[in-house]
Design brief:
Structural class: alpha/beta
Strand content: 5-15%
CATH class of one domain: Alpha Beta
Largest sheet: 7 strands, mixed
Helix content: 40-55%
CATH superfamily of one domain: Type I PLP-dependent aspartate aminotransferase-like (Major domain)
Distance between the termini: 53 Å
Amino acid sequence: MNWDDFADWSQKAARWGAEYHKTLRDRPVRAQVGPGDTLAQLPDAPPEKGQPLEDIWTDFQDIVMPGITHWQHPRFFAYFNSNAAPASVLAEFLASIVAPQCMLWQTSPSATEMETRMMDWLIQALGLPSTYSGVIQDSASSATLAAVLTMRERALSWAGNQKGLPGQKTLRIYCSDQVHSSIDRAIWVAGIGQENLIKIPTKGPMRAMDTEALQAAITADRAAGYLPAGIIAATGATGMGACDDMAAVADVAERESLYTHLDAAWAGAAMICPEFRPLWAGAERFDSIVFNPHKWLGAQFDCAAHFLRDPDLLRQTLAIRPEYLKTHGAAEVTDYSEWSIPLGRRFRALKLWFLIRTYGLEGLRARIRNHVVWSQALCDRLRAEPDFEIVTDPILSLWTFRVKGADDAATQALVDAINDDGRIYITQTLVDGTKVIRFQAGQFDCIQADFDTAFDTITQIARAS
C-alpha cells in the first residue's frame, strides 16, 4: 500500500464512517455474537505474503463488525459513554497521519504547547482556579495511579522510589466504598496493598463518604503506627453516581496534611455547566482532579484531563532525566512525559482543540443539559408506572431502578433480555447489596426520541417476562 492507495482508501473509509454513524439506530446496540465466533473466522497463522486491501476490507465488514458493540449508538445507556464527536474523530485522523511522538517539547513543540493551552481552556470551562495546571493522561485510571504514587512518595519524604517500600512505615490511603475499581488497582500497582486501602462507609442519598468515620479511621491508624498518605474522593461514582462532600473531605485532609485526589471521570464534564457545580463544591481545595473528556464531552477515546494544584509534586514522583531526554538550549519548556507514567505520548490535545472550537462551550453545555433533562424525565415516567420502583434518584443523568418484588436473579434476567433485544443497552449494579438496573445517558448524538424507545423497551420486555 502506497500513499496514493492510502488517499483512495481513506476516502472510502470516511464515506463508510459517515454512513455507519447515520444508520446506527438501525443496528442492535450490543454485539449479537457468541464467545469464539470472531476467533473462529481468523486464520491460525499470519500470511506470508501481502493480501489485497479489497479482501481485508471485505473481512472487516464480515468478520469484525458483527462482533462490535456500538459505543456510538444513540441508545447506548450502559457504563459511561466513550464518545467520538465528528470533529474529534477528524483531529484523531490527522494526528494518526502525522504520527508524532510527543514525549518532550523538542519532539513536537506544537503538541506540548497546545496541551498547555487546552488544559488551561478546560480549567476555565470548569470554573477551577487559574492556579491549577493540567496534563492529558490516557485514562482516569492512569491519573489516579499517578496520584497514588504521589501520595506514596510525599508521605515517605520521596524515599519510596529510591529505597522501596520494605522497611518503611505501612501506608494507608482512604476512599469511600463507592469508588471505581481503578482505585483498588492503583493501590496494587503502587505496592501499597489492598489491605491498606481503607474504604469508608457512606451515607445519605448521595452515598457520600462519612467524614466522621474517615477522621476516626485516620486517628486510629496513626495510633496503631500506620502512615496515612492520602484521600481519594469521587463525584459521580460509577455504580449509582455517588458524590462525596468535597469541602468536608478537604477539611479532614488539611487537618491531617494528606494529599487529596478527586475522581470525577464521568461527572467532571458536566461541571462546564455552572448549575451542576454544587455536586463538587470544594473541589478547588483538592491537590489533583481527573475527568475524562472522552466520556461526556465528546472527545475521541482516549483523553483524560488531570489537574494539579502543585505539579512539582507529580514531577518529583515521576520525572527521570537521562541525557538523551534532556532539552538543551531551550529554557522554561515543559516536558509532559515527566507528568505521566508512560514516556511515549500521543498528540491528544489536537482533538480537544478541534472539539472545543467546533462546538463551543455553549454547544457542549447544551448536549449535557439535554441528556440530564431527558434522562430525568425517563426516570419520572418509570416512577409513575405501578410495577417499577426507582432505587436511587438521578444524579445528573444516572439513576437505578428495578421491577417491584424482583429478586437478584429476576433483575439480571431482565437486563439480559433487554440487551438481547438490541434496541437499547443497559447494565446492572449493586446498591446496598441488592442488584438493580443502572441507566445513564451521555451519547453525543442521542435525541429525546431515543429515551422514548428506552421506556418502551424496558416496560414491554419487563411485562412480557
